[in-house]
Specification:
Layout: H1 7-108, E1 113-121, E2 124-131, H2 134-146, E3 150-161, E4 169-178
Antiparallel strand pairs: 1-2, 2-4, 3-4
Length: 191
């Protein structure tokens, strides 16, 4: 029987398998690294694209914020102008009322009653004066009630002073509400 040594053939096969194994590992590692690099580059590109979009959106938001601020400023100006227009319209409407108020104050004042002070807040009038008697103050209050431009007289203070035996005077303070009768047309007379 002949002896054949198969060791070198097996040794050669093991060496070749080892080389193929290391080559497969290197190829797999290279492929994995290439795949990871590709994924990394893809994700970096997507991130850069999203950052560009974010920058664009931020600039657009800043532009819109400036426009919103301008709109708010314009709305404030518009509101101020509307308020001024309303005040002008009220003043225009109430212009003849001042004349009627002073005319009514003069017409309702009876003889023996003198006004010393008159102040107005809105449609409320505060009147201070001197009267020769309490009856004259009562007559003044009745005249106010009969006036088309004045109403609701309210007596706040009345005090009598006797500077001499011959002269008798009383100081009074009234609160009066101004009436706004309907007019016929602009500046027309009360109906």
């Amino acid at each position: 029987m002949a002896r054949i040594n198969l060791l070198p053939w097996r040794e050669e096969r093991r060496r070749q398998q080892r080389q193929e194994f290391f080559l497969a590992i290197a190829l797999g590692t290279g492929l994995a690294a290439g795949l990871m690099l590709g994924v990394h580059l893809y994700l970096a590109d997507r991130i850069e694209y999203q950052e560009q979009r974010n920058r664009f959106l931020k600039t657009q938001i800043a532009i819109l914020d400036r426009k919103i601020k301008e709109i708010r400023d314009l709305e404030k100006k518009r509101d101020r102008l509307i308020a001024k227009m309303e005040i002008i319209q009220r003043l225009q409407f109430s212009r003849p009322e001042v004349v009627h108020l002073f005319d009514s104050m003069a017409r309702t004042l009876p003889e023996g009653v003198y006004l010393t002070k008159m102040t107005q807040k809105g449609d409320r009038l505060a009147v201070d004066g001197i009267a020769q008697s309490n009856a004259r103050v009562s007559a003044y209050m009745r005249n106010i009630e009969a006036s088309p431009w004045l109403q609701k007289p309210k007596l706040k203070v009345i005090e009598s002073k006797n500077p001499s035996k011959h002269e008798r005077r009383g100081y009074f303070s009234l609160e009066i509400q101004q009436r706004h009768p309907k007019t016929n047309g602009a500046g027309g007379e009360a109906s």
